[in-house]
Specification:
about 475 residues; mainly beta; 34-stranded mixed β-sheet; two-stranded antiparallel ribbon; 36 strands; globular; disordered C terminus
């Protein structure tokens, strides 16, 4: 086993230019919901006709209880023990939806029970089915309890895979995710002071929890299990999407895509909206299977910045810290802290790619289609970013401190661009053991302070580095 250790001399290079302490920034004390609903009156959905038989769709009864609660100025909407089936429900301001331990909410498996709404999914604003649970254009809302929300998303997965086979043949891989219109489990949109706490979510049809265009959010103690009933595609755990002042803590996620993911719009449409994700704390959370413990992108157009991820654990997750974007996305990922965490048995410790998944990331209209005949969201995807330089993403100023990663396949898989060097990475007081060092392309100003990288096989030679090859830097 080869061991590369980075000593005091590298630390000296940083004196006067960088604070290697990686202390939590002052802004981290200001994240999260500022208020919670205070009403104590309880509105049982059963009193509005909801049957707990696990068969009857009781969407209208649940909604009536919510509406009655809101009309009285707020309170608690609750369920008597049992299993309930519902389509989309919509929270109102000052309402606390409480799903207790002996309650299971099952998602309807009929797309007709999820009405179309204006939203944004995967970086594009478009008409999309409402989620199972929605907090849209509201303030001071809580959704809590020890109960279970099982979206039963297989009906969405089956639709997607059927469409995918057809779309791939027609050169439409880039749009099938948007045309499939799968159902999210919980959506917070255009809202503030929202608290989500304690619930278990299972088998999302698409993303599990999306926090969109919202601020002052607390997500505490959620358990997400999307691998229990097959492997649903794109079943992200928690997506923070052009939202701010957000606290995610004490969550446990096992999913089939990114576990904790930060997004900010895609391509021309995302640049048009131009709303960042910023001031986000993720702490004391666990990622099991999934594509990334903490993923930034691939929707980066509005910028992702001021992120503090600490006291995290990952096991059998695909990537540790992940940044992904594309040359039509634009935006900058910056001021990122990834600290005090432990990861084991993952593929890539650090994976940064500014030209991620070209078959999905870039849109071309095949022969046989006319621009006039295609849907509006196709047109958004096909709209060119002008000037093209506006679409070049950036990644810089990333601090990793006191992070221990064991049994990785690769330590680094880093791919910048000739026009966008990934710069300002600091690995401080950290440890990585991996089979290979990996590759680095187009990087600059990477520093390693009091850190150790154990490599069990010959490192791959770096290509096209912005300065000296990073592998050569490690050997110094």
């Amino acid at each position: 086993m080869k061991k590369y250790s980075f000593g005091i001399w590298m630390c000296l290079l940083l004196i006067g230019t960088f604070d290697a302490s990686a202390q939590a920034p002052v802004w981290t004390t200001k994240v999260g919901a500022r208020t919670v609903p205070s009403g104590k009156a309880i509105f049982y959905v059963n009193d509005y006709g909801a049957m707990a038989d696990g068969k009857t769709v009781v969407t209208k009864s649940i909604q009536q209880a919510i509406d009655a609660c809101a009309k009285k100025g707020g309170g608690i909407v609750a369920f008597k023990p049992g299993t309930y089936v519902s389509g989309s429900i919509f929270l109102k301001s000052n309402v606390h939806l409480q799903i207790d331990e002996q309650v299971t909410l099952l998602g309807s498996q009929d797309f007709a029970d999820y009405p179309d709404t204006s939203s944004r999914v995967a970086g594009i604003e478009m008409v999309w089915p409402a989620a199972l649970i929605n907090a849209m254009n509201v303030k001071n809302v809580a959704i809590t309890g020890k109960g279970t929300v099982n979206a039963r998303g297989k009906f969405c997965w089956d639709k997607y895979w059927t469409m995918r086979k057809d779309y791939d043949k027609r050169g439409l891989r880039w749009i099938v995710d948007y045309d499939a219109k799968r159902v999210r489990t919980l959506l917070v949109q255009n809202s503030e002071d929202i608290t989500l706490r304690g619930l278990t979510f299972k088998n999302a049809g698409f993303w599990t929890v999306q926090l969109l265009y919202s601020s002052h959010l607390t997500v505490d103690g959620l358990i997400i299990r999307n691998n229990e009933d097959g492997s649903g595609p794109s079943t992200d755990g928690i997506d923070i999407d052009s939202s701010t002042w957000t606290l995610i803590e004490n969550c446990d996620i096992d999913c089939n895509d990114d576990n904790f993911c930060l997004k900010a719009g895609r391509d021309w449409d995302g640049l048009r909206v131009n709303r960042p994700t910023e001031y986000v704390v993720i702490r004391k959370c666990l990622a099991r299977k999934g594509a990334g413990l903490v993923t930034l992108g691939s929707e980066t157009s509005g910028g992702i910045r001021h992120v503090y991820a600490t006291d995290l654990t990952a096991k059998h997750t695909d990537n540790g810290l992940r940044i992904k974007s594309a040359t039509t996305r634009g935006g900058v990922v910056e001021d990122i802290y990834f600290v005090n965490s432990t990861l084991d048995s993952i593929n890539n410790a650090y994976q940064f790619n500014l030209n991620w998944y070209p078959a999905y990331s870039y849109s071309t209209l095949p022969a046989g289609y006319t621009y006039e005949s295609i849907p509006a969201h196709w047109k958004s995807m096909l709209q060119h970013v002008e000037p093209a330089s506006k679409g070049i993403p950036g990644a810089r100023n990333i601090t990793v401190k006191n992070v221990k990663i064991t049994n990785a396949v690769k330590a680094f898989e880093i791919n910048g661009l000739p026009t966008s060097i990934i710069e300002g990475f600091r690995l401080i007081d950290s440890y990585v053991s991996a089979q290979t060092l990996g590759t680095m392309e187009y990087t600059r100003d990477w520093k390693y302070i009091n850190s150790v990288i154990d490599i069990s096989s010959k490192p791959v030679v770096a290509k096209k580095a912005g300065n000296m090859a990073e592998e050569e830097r490690l050997k110094q």
